[in-house]
Amino acid sequence: MSKISRRGFLFGGAAATGALVSASAGAAVGASLGAEAATEAANKANLTAVLKRRERFFGQHQNGIETELQTFTNFVAFDLKPETDAAAAARWFKLITDDIARLSVGEAPLADPTPQLAMGPARFTATLAVGPGFFDKLGLADKKPTGFEQLPAFNVDQLREEYSYGDVLLHISADDPIILSHGVRSLVRDSVGFAKVRYSQQGFSNAQGVVPGGVRQRNLMGQVDGTDNPEIGSSDFNNIVWVENGPDWLIGGTFLVFRRIAMQLGTWDALGRTDKELVIGRNLQNGAPLGKQNENDPIDFDAVDANGLKLIPEFAHIRRAHATNPTERIFRRPFNYEVGVTPDGEPDVGLLWTAYQRDISTQFLPIQKRLDQLDLLNKWTVPIGSAVWAVLPGVEQSANGDYLGKKLFQ
Amino acid sequence: MSKISRRGFLFGGAAATGALVSASAGAAVGASLGAEAATEAANKANLTAVLKRRERFFGQHQNGIETELQTFTNFVAFDLKPETDAAAAARWFKLITDDIARLSVGEAPLADPTPQLAMGPARFTATLAVGPGFFDKLGLADKKPTGFEQLPAFNVDQLREEYSYGDVLLHISADDPIILSHGVRSLVRDSVGFAKVRYSQQGFSNAQGVVPGGVRQRNLMGQVDGTDNPEIGSSDFNNIVWVENGPDWLIGGTFLVFRRIAMQLGTWDALGRTDKELVIGRNLQNGAPLGKQNENDPIDFDAVDANGLKLIPEFAHIRRAHATNPTERIFRRPFNYEVGVTPDGEPDVGLLWTAYQRDISTQFLPIQKRLDQLDLLNKWTVPIGSAVWAVLPGVEQSANGDYLGKKLFQ
C-alpha cells in the first residue's frame, strides 16, 4: 500500500478496524533510528534498582507466592467461553506461559503492540490458577481435586458476584504500576479469545523499600498484618503451602482462598486506640500480643489483669483466629484496595486477602468457622468477594515444551 | 468507665456509634511500651530514600505543581454544603492548611485516629484550588476572576458529571500508596463537615526511580508524554504558569485545566507503529518529531518526503497542538488512570490530564480549539471529565496565622 493511500485510509476511519497493516517503517521513522539506539543505551545504563529486580519464573512452584509483596497487584478472573474446549484451554495456557516467562524478565510478549512499556521486570509475577468450574466446563471432572468447591456460606458474608468466583485466575503483580498495567493488558489480550474477563481487582502495598525494617506492612486500619505467617522457604512453609499428595497435575501447586474484605473505617476510626487493641488482641504500634513485648512473642491467652479479666478478651480476633490444632495454619499475603469515597467521606477500602494452603478443608475452613461464630472484628470487616483456586505447579524449563497446566490436559 | 463495663459496651454494639471514649491506656497496652519505643527507633533508622524525600510546603506557590510526578495521585473534588458560608469555608481552609503542612513532613494531622500510617513524607503534596461555583455559593462574586467559568463544549467531549466540575479541589499525591491513602482520608475527614465529596479520581505514573534517564514518562499508549513543557523554575515556566496580575488573593497562584481523557487502546493497538507515529507526529521510541533525531529538536512542519508528502501529516497531533503564537503555551503534568477491563478485554484506561497556566482563555483554549477541529488522535482519545480550577497561592509561613486562601476571605 502506498504511503498516500495509507494516509487516506487512516484518515478515512478504517484505521479503527484493525485491518491496516503498515507496509514499511517509512523515511520519517528511519531518520531517527540513530538517536533511538543512543536513547536505548542510555535507558539500559540508567535502569534503577526497582526496575531491575526480578523474580525467577522457571521452577518447581509458580512465582507470586514465595514473593515479598509487590507494590501493585491485580487479580484478573476469567469465565471460559462455551466454545473453549480442553484443547483450546491448553493452547491458551501455552501462550500465557510464554508471555509470563518474557514479562518476568522485562521483555515484551510476542506481537506486543506497545513494546515500549516493557521497561524492565520490576519484580513482575503472574500466577495461573483454576477454579472448580474449570473442570466441569472442560470435561475434566476426573482431574478435579476431591472436595474442591466454593466456600460454604458464612454469616458474615455479603458476597457480590462481581468480586467472586471464576474459572481461571491470573494474579499479576509488579513494583511499578505502568509495568503492571502493560503486563495485565498483554495477558488479557492473549486470553479473550478463550474466556471473558469476569473481574479485575486492583490492590497495593507499600512502595518498595518503604516498609521500615522489623515491622511488617500495615493495612489501612493501621494494624501490622501478616504476623504468625510461616517463614518463606522453611520446611514449615513448605508443609503448609505446597501440595505433596493429590492429582499429579497439582503436585508442587497450592490452594488459594481469595477474600475481598471491606473495612468500615468510619466507625473503626471512632474507636480509641485501647479499644482497637482489645478488638484485635495486639498492640497497634508494634503488633505484640497484649501483655507481651514483641510481635512474635508467644500469645498468653490465659493472662489476666488485676481485676481478673483476661488481657486478651474472648471476642478478640487473635484468640478466635489462633489455631490450637497445629495443622490449622495458612500462609497469608494480603494487599489493600481503595476504590473511592462516598459523598460523606467514607472510603471504599479493604483487603484483597489471600491464604495459601495444601488443604482448604483442614487449614482455612476451621479458622474461618471460628471467626464466623465470634470475632468482634467482624463488626468492621465484611467479606464482599470470595473465590477458591487451585494454583498450578511451576514450569521447570521452557526448552522441553513444558507449559503451565500441561499435565491437566494429558 | 471501668474496664469491665467498657468491654460490655464494646461487645454490645455501641462501639460502632463512635460514642466510646477510652478512659485509660490499660495495663495490657502499657506492658509493651518499651518494645514499642525500640521498634519506633528502628523504624526511623530504616526510613528509606523513597519514604524520606519531601517537598517543601511553605513558600510563594503551593507544592504539587513544580514537582516531579509522584507515583500516585488522587483528584478529590467537593461540592460546598448549603449551610457552609464564607466564614465556615475559611475555618475549613485553615484546618486543611495545618493538615497539609504536617502530612508534607510525614507527621500525622491533629487527632488522627491512625497515626501509625503517617510513616514518612514520601513526597506528599496536596494542592488546594477553587472552582467557579465557589464564588457564587459563598457570596464572593466580587472576588471571582474575570471569565472564570467551565470550559465551552467541544465536539470531542463526552463528559460525565461524576468525573467533572466541583467547588473545591484537593489534588493529593505521594510516592507511596498507603501514605497517599492515609493523607486522602485525613483531608477528607476534615472536609466533610463543610462539603460533600463529588469525586475521587485516582491515577499513577512510574514508580520512583523507574523512569530511565533522558526519557520522560510514557502514557499507556506507549508515547513519551510531556515534551515541550517549560523547564520547571525557569523564567519561561514562571511566565507561563504563575498569575502576576489579577485578584490579590490569586497572585502566585495559577489556573488548572483538568481533563479525564479515555484512551481507546483496543483500536489503537491495532495500528502499526508507523501509523501511530503519523497520528502523533513523533517517533514512538524516543519522542523525536518525525524527520528529526531527538525529542527536543525543533519541529519542521514543512519537511516533505520524496513523494512531496509532508513528513508530519496535516492531521498529526503535534501539528494541531503546536502553538504558532508564543503566548499559547501551558505546563502539563499528566497522570495515568486504570479502572478495570470489560469482559472482552478492553481496558478502562486513560489520562488524568492537567494543564497549568496564568490565563486559560489565551493559553489552553486556542490549543484545544485547534485540536477539536482536526486532530486524528481524537479517534482514540475521548474527554470524559473536565474541570477548571483557580489554584491558590502558597503560604509563606505558619507562624503569622497565614493559611491557604486567607486573602479570599478578607
TrEMBL record, chains A, B:
PROSITE patterns from the UniProt entry: DYP_PEROXIDASE (PS51404), TAT (PS51318)
Signal sequence residues: 1-27
Organism: Candidatus Rhodoluna planktonica
UniProt key word Metal-binding: yes
One of the record's GO molecular function terms: heme binding
Cofactor annotation: heme b
GO cellular component: cytosol
Family annotation (InterPro entries): Dimeric_a/b-barrel, Dyp_perox_C, Dyp_perox_N, Dyp_peroxidase, TAT_signal
Domain Dyp-type peroxidase C-terminal: from-to ranges: 217-395
Listed name of the protein: Peroxidase
Residues in Dyp-type peroxidase N-terminal domain copies: 62-204
Family annotation (Pfam families): Dyp_perox_C (PF20628), Dyp_perox_N (PF04261)
Keywords: Heme, Iron, Metal-binding, Oxidoreductase, Peroxidase, Signal
Protein family according to the UniProt entry: Belongs to the DyP-type peroxidase family.
